[in-house]
Amino acid sequence: MKFGIALKLSLLLALAGALAAGLTGYYAFEASRTLLVNAAKDRLLTSTLVLARRVALAREEIERDLVLVAEHPAARALLQGPGTPSQQQTLQDLMVLMLQSQPSYFQVRLIAADQHGMERVRVDRAPRGPMVVADDDLQEKGHFDYVSQALRLGPDQTYMSRVAINHERGSHLGVDKPSLQLARPVRDAQGRTLGVAVINIDLNGTFELLAKDMPESIQLYFANHEGDILIHPEPAKTFGFDRGRRIFIQDEFAATGPVVRGDNNVAVFESHEGAHANQPVVAAFMSQPLKVSSPETRLTLGLTQPLQAVLADSNRLGQTVLQIVLALCALSLLLALWMGRALTRPINAISHAARMVASGLPAGALPVERRDEIGDLARAFRDMRLQIGEQISELRDNQDELEHLAQHDPLTGLANRRKFQERLDHALAQARRVPQTVSVLFIDLDRFKPINDHHGHDVGDVVLQTVARRLKGVLREVDTVARIGGDEFVALLGAPATQEQLEAIARKLLTLVSEPMVVDKLQLDLGCSIGIASYPDHASTATDLLAAADHAMYQAKTAGRNTFRFFDATPPAA
Ligand SMILES: Nc1nc2c(ncn2[C@@H]2O[C@H](COP(=O)(O)OP(=O)(O)OP(=O)(O)O)[C@@H](O)[C@H]2O)c(=O)[nH]1
């Protein structure tokens, strides 16, 4: 296939098809990606809100447990005096039960308001289960905020400490673990504050429980009211302030700044910055003010999911789209090539037909039956070819006519001087080879001028035509009769003739021309003089032979007309 219009058109169509398929695929892929990211953001935000709700419910549950301890008569009794062993046992049993039923509790305590905040009952979580701390190991805790601040609380109020690493001595499993304390005052019947009930919470354990049904790809973040990171997928980034180096959530995710400050309640975003440059994430963060008395005015909670995990479906879709696009490209290329061939074939047939016509050969089949532009072109070409054919045959006719006119006398239809000359040249050339004789008879009408003068030119013409017919009647097919002047005729004999035969022909001619002629009811009297010359006796060339015959004709005229003479080069006697 040539790089012609059809191929260019095919390539253009294929390109357009591929471009359309590619763009559709690209925008479908982009749209799906945006949809997936937005859906992931919505999911993360919902999960964050659910988690925050669970945290609030967990806190309320802890508060209820605190109320159980703080309102327990045994607790009041133990704080108002030394209490009985059974009161102490009752409270210890209650605390043990709490630790058994709440895996996120590190410690439950009853602390007195006096004696510098002396612990009165304390149950710790030990490796083998809840452990009642012996009286001798009980400590003074009055200097801790969760004691001093809780003692100042009004009725039905709970205090929550800052979330920090627990460095309190003797707290067993809770030692050096992220934890916080919730505390509630214990009052007597008159409303005097006797002490506080305190529950020490395992931060990580609590969140592990709350977030245990989250998909693995989702990461949990938790920060205090200033943005210090408390829970992070990388433990090294948590509780930086405990090691003298603060690490803020808003430094890792700039978009969380307003949430930490409380300007916004939620922030949902995509992060490609800093540590997430290589592995971008989709994130949802929220913060809410605490409903308890606490130095932590608000806490920030967030969930992230790697963009890669979010877009996993999109990538699968992208591969499918790519396969479809490639298939469509291949299809459009095949269609374009097929169309190109379909266009090229009839056009090639027409151009082939044009070349055949140009070479004078039959055009062959043309797609004239088609109803489209190519059919129009084929029909126009066929009409043009027919028109050209007609014109060529007309030209040929004209050419034949011109040829005839160029070689014949228009009045009589006899050969003219030119044709006669050709025949004579040819006859002489042949005669030279054989060798043989060639004879020419020069015939000039006698007394023709008076006919013309008296009866007009038209009558003269009829006479000339009649003479021509008579001459042809006498001579044979092989002979050539020509009119070479007004009333001058010549005859070239097609075969060698003896003198006797020549004389016989001449006499026959004289007789026939002299026969009476009636034109327009006019009886006309006519005759002719004939000069005869032969090759090679009288001349060797055509010109000389004709001149010799002419000369002999004059001799016949001179001899009195209506006779014939053979060429005689002897000059007449003076
Ligand atoms: N009607 C007619 N006359 C022609 C034509 N061509 C020449 N003539 C005339 O033919 C005549 C020829 O002249 P001449 O040969 O001298 O006349 P003539 O009477 O035959 O004379 P002689 O040969 O001496 O007998 C002239 O009068 C020309 O005008 C022609 O085509 N038609």
Principal-axis shape equals: rod-shaped
Number of helices: 15
Query: What is the helix content?
Result: 40-55%
Low-confidence stretches: none
Main sheet: strands, sense, barrel: 7 strands, antiparallel
What hetero molecules are bound to the protein chains? guanosine-5'-triphosphate
User: Cα distance, first to last residue?
Assistant: 93 Å
Count of β-strands: 19
> Roughly what fraction of the amino acids lie in strands?
15-25%
CATH class of one domain: Alpha Beta
The Cα radius of gyration reads 68 Å
CATH fold description of one domain: Alpha-Beta Plaits
**Helical/strand content category:** alpha+beta
CATH architecture of one domain: 2-Layer Sandwich
Mean pLDDT reading: 90
CATH superfamily of one domain: Reverse transcriptase/Diguanylate cyclase domain
Written description of the protein model:
It comes from Hydrogenophaga atypica. By secondary structure, the protein is an alpha+beta fold. Among the domains are: 215-305, Beta-Lactamase, CATH 3.30.450.20; 366-399; 408-566, 2-Layer Sandwich (Alpha-Beta Plaits). It is built from 15 helices and 19 strands. Strands 1, 2, 3, 4, 5, 6 and 7 form a 7-stranded antiparallel beta sheet that branches. Strands 9-8-12-11-10 form a 5-stranded antiparallel beta sheet. It has a 5-stranded mixed beta sheet with strand order 14-15-13-18-19, sandwiched between helices. The mean pLDDT is 90. It binds guanosine-5'-triphosphate. Guanosine-5'-triphosphate is lined by residues 411, 444-450, 452, 457, 460-461, 464, 486-487.
